[in-house]
Amino acid sequence: MDNKMFCYQCEQTAGCGGCTGAAGVCGKTADVAKLQDELTGALVALARGIHEAPEVGTDTWRMMIEGLLRSNIRIIEMGNAKGLGATEKGSPAPISDVAYLDLIHPYLGQAEIGMFLNAKRFEADNVAMAADKGISFLRLGADAGMIGAAMLGRHA
Known about the structure:
alpha/beta, three-stranded parallel β-sheet, two-stranded antiparallel sheet, 5 strands, 37% helix, elongated
């Protein structure tokens, strides 16, 4: 393998634009960066492939979290792609929000694990449940045209 690398996998990237050369600022070699890219790509492909497969259970999601942790990924967002509370509003997901939150519990000390919260589907009870389950963060967002609601953190 060529000793040149391009890596932008961590917060230490050179000049916030990625590390190049024989090793990264963090000391990671080009070989390791390439393997981490391949593993991350495989996990993304797995997630895309099973997103709407209702027969997929918690073992698959646990495998994905453990793969990300083994790749030294320390900020992980998971759950229904349409956000916390979307499943109960009719958006399909392989497992429920509660199941996702129970699944992450053993990993909370190893990474920051959170979920997306769409302002349109904001429910105080869901946020309280996520907080009670120990979630590390909620990333707030909105559908196109809903930016005002996202900025206010409530329904428009």
